[in-house]
Amino acid sequence: MDPVRNPYAPGAGQRPPELAGRDRELAQFGVVLERIATGRPERSLVLTGLRGVGKTVLLNALRSEAIGRAWATGKVEARADTPIRRPVATAVYAAVREIGVRHRGEERVHRFLQVLKAFSLKASPDGSWQIGVDVDPARGRADSGDLEIDLTELFLDAADIARDLGVGVALFVDELQDVGAADLAALCGAVHEVGQQGAPLVIVGAGLPHLPTVLSSSKSYAERLFRYLAIDRLDRSAADLALTAPAEREGVAGPALPGVRGVPLLHPGLRQGHLGRGRRHAGDGRGRRRRPAPGAVRARRRVLRQPVRARHSGRAGIPAGDGGAGARRRRSRVDGRRGQAPREAGVQPVGGPRGAD
């Protein structure tokens, strides 16, 4: 394939040429947006899965879905060494900017920016960092220094701006498991309060499989606070579609990769632009490893259960027999090291095991 036209160029978080097998998650998120926009109660979402299964790609696809419905959106990539107040302030600012130009109440938008400025100042008490908004900070709103209180007030004010336009606010947090324990507890508390007041704001988080446990450790009600979606490898039909659809659009035959196992765009051959068979394991010619005969497995386990000395002395409980030329040579070398005369095939030494009477 022409390397310029090669559609297979996977990378961390990059959208594949065909987003296959994620229709269920997209449909569920659409229902969440519709329910929240109409004032009905709904839970925030958390995507969990191993690295490489497409959580970040799906997170970006969900954000595109929200933007298509004219929602205010912002994204945070959590880091273990960074408190969450600063990235949340940046994400909320980006979200309100998307809808602020459509809002007719300039005073309401200006008031929200003052609250956002007050919230951001608490991220750096020395004033070394603050949100880039040329307004005076508000007093008595989102400036208490308690992160849970400040997040709740900031989220409610942002949701009020969105409600005026008949939409909502969606904040997307990637690598949510890296948020510190105290900050994660504050975030859960704020989401809980926003949900109780029916504000049109939703949090969509993504993280590793242990994220539900981390959230439950921060707040006991977190298991009911979020709707958890496990993101796994694609099934065979979706994996085939992810491979063949881009190839068909380029007018070439689709690749056959039986060993990819549901993560087709991670295959190294596709990064190099090769369309062909994937690497097979040595085995039975159909990509499967040969299994040893059941009798051989039982015999090996029986030998391994014996003491190490017994295994090498011919007393491991294996029935006596010729054993072949290789076995006779090995017994001869063992007996030679012990100063004994070589044994005939199938003949046990007189006297039984060492130390026997």
Task: Give a concise summary.
This protein has 13 helices and 5 strands.
Account of the 3D structure:
Residues 264-285, 314-322 and 345-357 have low confidence and may be disordered. The protein has helices at 23-37, 55-68, 85-100, 106-121, 147-164, 181-196, 211-218, 222-225, 236-249, 268-271, 294-304, 308-312, 324-337, and strands at residues 44-48, 72-77, 169-174, 201-207, 226-230. It is globular, with a radius of gyration of 32 Å. The chain is built from 13 helices and five strands. Helix 5 (147-164) crosses helix 6 (181-196). With 357 residues, it is an alpha/beta fold. The protein is 43% helix and 8% strand. It has a five-stranded parallel beta sheet with strand order 2-3-4-1-5, with helices on both faces.
Topology:
Elements: H1 23-37, E1 44-48, H2 55-68, E2 72-77, H3 85-100, H4 106-121, H5 147-164, E3 169-174, H6 181-196, E4 201-207, H7 211-218, H8 222-225, E5 226-230, H9 236-249, H10 268-271, H11 294-304, H12 308-312, H13 324-337
Parallel strand pairs: 1-4, 1-5, 2-3, 3-4
Helix pairs in contact: 1-2, 3-4, 3-5, 4-5, 5-6, 6-7
Key features?
alpha/beta, 5 strands, five-stranded parallel β-sheet, globular, disordered C terminus
Number of strands: 5
Shape: globular
Alpha-carbon distance between the two ends: 78 Å
- Element order: H for helix, E for strand: HEHEHHHEHEHHEHHHHH
Task: Give the helix/strand class.
Answer: alpha/beta
- Report helical residue fraction: 40-55%
* Major sheet description: 5 strands, parallel
Helix tally?
Answer: 13
Give the overall average pLDDT: 78
What fraction strand?
5-15%
- Uncertain runs: 264-285, 314-322, 345-357
